[in-house]
Amino acid sequence: MQLDDVIKGLESGELFEGFIRISQKCTNEAYVPSPDKSKDILLNSIKARNRALDGDKVAVRILDKSEWRNPDTEDCQRTGEVVYILNRKENRVVVGTLLVDRGVLHRYSTLVPRDCRIPRLLIDTSIWPSPIHLRDGTKESKELFYALLPSWENFKLPKGILKGVLGESGEINTETEGILIAHDIQERPYPEDIDQYFPTQFSVEDELKYRKDFRKHCIFSIDPPTARDLDDALSCVPLPNGNFEIGIHISDVSYFVKQGTPLDEIAEKLATSVYLTQKVYHMLPPALTMMASLLPGTDKLAVSITLEMTPDANVISHSFSQSIIHSCAQLHYAHAQIFLENPNKKDWDESEFPTVYNGYTINDCATAVSHLHKLAAVMRERRFSSGALAINQPKLSFDIDRATCEPLSYSLYILHESNWLIEEFMLLANTMVAEHLKTHFPTTAMLRNHHRPDAAPMEKAVKLLKAHGIDIDFTSAGSIHKSKAAYCKGENSENPHWDIIISNILSKPMVRAEYCVIDPDKSMSHFALNVPYYTHFTSPIRRYPDIVVHRMLISWLTGKPIKEYEDPKVINK
Fold first, then answer.
1. Residues 233, 325: contact at Cβ < 8 Å?
2. Helix, strand, coil content of the chain in percent (nearest 5)
3. CA 398 → CA 180, 464, 511, distances in Å?
4. Average pLDDT rounded to a whole number, residues 362-381
5. Burial of 36 (0-12, 13-18, 19+ CB in 10 A)
6. Angle between helices 333-341 and 417-440 (to 10 degrees)
7. Which pLDDT does position 490 carry in this prediction?
8. What percent of the chain has pLDDT over 70?
9. How many angstroms separate the CA atoms of 292 and 326, rounded?
10. How much is the pTM?
11. CB-based burial of residue 359 (10 Å sphere; 0-12 exposed, 13-18 middle, 19+ buried)?
C-alpha cells in the first residue's frame, strides 16, 4: 500500500500498527499484538509478513474471518497481513555460515543465518578476496561470516553484502563474537581517552561536608563469587530498644558519571551490562566500574537508606543520604548460607572466608547476616501473604575452563535463603525510593511499571494447566501465587518439577515490565510485586535507569534541581 493510504487506514481503524514478533519454534508464523489487547494477530506465512523482519514496526490488515485459524471455536486465532513497514532496522547485521550450493565458480552463495527468524541471504561471493573453505564432504563453509542486509526488495531471497569472517564455526571465541555482532554489542564501546571524563580522586574531608559517615559500621556485600560490579552492601546494628538500624548502601555512580558528558551519553546508549556465560561486557568502562564498585577495605561513595526496623520487620522510620562507607568484607552467597545453616556457631575458621577489614571479624559478619535473614524471612512471608507473585524460571549454571572458556559441566542454579535475603532488602529499597520520587517528582518520576497479563492468553494457559488437573485462580497476582504454591510444596507436590513446569506455562502470558514516567491518570502499579509504585535504584553500575533515579533522589537531597529532568518527555526518551 502507499503511505497515504496506510495513514488513512490507521486513522479509520481498517489497519492497526504494532511490532512484529517472529516465532523461533515455527519461523513461518509471526505475531503482532492485537489493537484490542486480546489474542495476538497471527501472520501465518512468510508472504503475510511482506518482507518484515523481527522487531520491525508494521501496519497490519486483519483478514476475512474465512481465513482465520479455527474460526467459531474457543481456539479461534485471527490472522492478518502486513501492508506496510513503518519502521525497519536498516543495515541489519546477519551472522551465519555460507552455503556454496551452486558450485565454487558460481557468482552467488547463500548465507544461512544463525538466527532462524532471518531469511537466507543471497551473497555475491565472486568479489570476496579470500578463498572459502568448506567442511569435508559438504557445501557449507568452515568459517562463520557476517553480512549486512540493506533492504529486501522482492519476495525471493534478499541480497546481502558480505562484510567479514569471524573465525572457525563452533569455536567459543568465534561464536561469542557472532552473538555480539548480531545484537549490536561492542566489545570496546568507549574511546581510549574516555578517562578524561572520570572524576578526580575524591577527598574524604570534602565529601564529609555533606555525606554521612558510615565507615565505622560493619558493612558487607553478598554476591556471586564471580561478581566484580558490587552495586550494593548491607549493614545491621542492634539498637538498645530491641529494634535494628538497617543500612542499604548503593554505589553512588552518579558521582562518577556526570550528566551530559560523552561518558554519560555512551552509558545511556548501552543502557545495561551484558552477561555471557564466560564474560561480562560492562555498561561502564572497566576502570570506572572498579572505582564505583563497593569493594572491601577502602572508602567508597554511596547513596544510603537507613531504616529503623522492629524485630517483626516493620519500618519505624527511614532516611536517605549520600554517604561514605568502608565495606569490611566481600561475601559470597555460599558464605552467607553457611552462616544461616550454622546459627549457633561462633568459632569460625577465618582462613575459609574472605579477608575481613576495619577491625571486624567473620563472627561479626555472621551475626549481622543472621539478624538480616530473620528480618528478610518475615518480609518475604508478609510480601507473599499480601498478594505478591514470584514466577522463577530455572537457570543453568555452567562450570567452564577459565583458560579455554570451554564448558566442563552444568547444573541447575539453586536459589538459597541467602539469595532471598538480598532480594528482600533490594525490593524494599526500590519500593521506598519509588514512593519517595512519586511524592517529590509527581510529574517526572521514573518508575518501573508491570501491567497485569491480558485475559485471553492467561485463560489459555490456565485451561492448559486445568487439563492436567492443576487449578489456577488468576484473579490477582496473589491468587496465582497461592494456587501455584499448592502444587509445588508439601503433600500436594506429586512431581518435584511442578514448580518449573507451572512457572514456565504461566510465564507465557505475562507482559514485560517497562520503564515509564509517572502518570497521575494511569495506574503505575507493579502487578507481580503487588505494590502501587516501583523503580530501579539498586544496580546503577550495570543499569542506566538506576543512574537516572539516583540523580533524581540526589537532586531532592541537595536541593539542586536538574533542568533536563523537569520535562517528562526527556525522562520518557
1. yes
2. 30, 25, 45
3. 20, 32, 29
4. 97
5. exposed
6. 110
7. 54
8. 97
9. 13
10. 0.91
11. exposed
Which amino acid, one-letter code, is at 96? G
What is the residue-averaged pLDDT of the chain? 92
φ, ψ of residue 305 in degrees (nearest 5) = -115, 120
Q: Rounded to whole angstroms, how far apart are CA atoms 387 and 375?
A: 19
Indicate the length of the chain as a whole number. Answer: 573
Is residue 234 packed enough to be buried (19+ CB in 10 Å), middle (13-18) or exposed (0-12)? buried
Q: What is the maximum span of the chain, computed from C-alpha positions, in angstroms? A: 86
Span 401-427, average pLDDT: 91
User: CA–CA separation, 350 vs 337, rounded Å?
Assistant: 16
387, three cell numbers: 498478594
Q: Tell me if residue 260 falls in helix, strand or coil.
A: coil
Alpha helices in 225-272 (DSSP H): 253-256, 262-270
Q: d(Cα 375, Cα 248) in Å, to the nearest integer?
A: 14
pLDDT band at 133 (very low <50, low <70, confident <90, very high): confident
Instruction: Provide mean pLDDT across the span 64-68.
Output: 93
pLDDT of residue 61: 97
Tell me which H or E stretch contains 545.
helix 544-558
Q: What is the pLDDT of residue 494?
A: 60
Q: Is 42 helix (H, G, I), strand (E, B) or coil?
A: strand
Q: Given the C-alpha cell 497476582, which residue does it identify?
A: 477
* 177: helix, strand or coil: helix
Give buried/exposed letters for 447-471 (b at 16+ CB in 10 A, else e): bbbbebbbeebbeebbeebeeeebe
Find the radius of gyration of the CA atoms of the chain. 27
Asked whether the beta carbons of 232 and 426 are under 8 A apart, the reply is: yes
Residue 167 amino acid letter:
G
Residue 15 corresponds to which cell in the numbers above?
A: 489497519
pLDDT at 492 over 60: no
337-350 burial code (b ≥16 CB/10 A, e <16): bbbbeeeeeeebee
Q: 405 or 41: whose pLDDT is higher?
A: 41
Beta strands 108-113 and 121-124 are antiparallel
Q: Which three three-digit cell numbers place residue 261?
A: 558528558
Write out the three cell numbers for 259. Answer: 550528566
| Separation in Å, CA 98 to CA 103, 142, 538 | 12, 8, 45
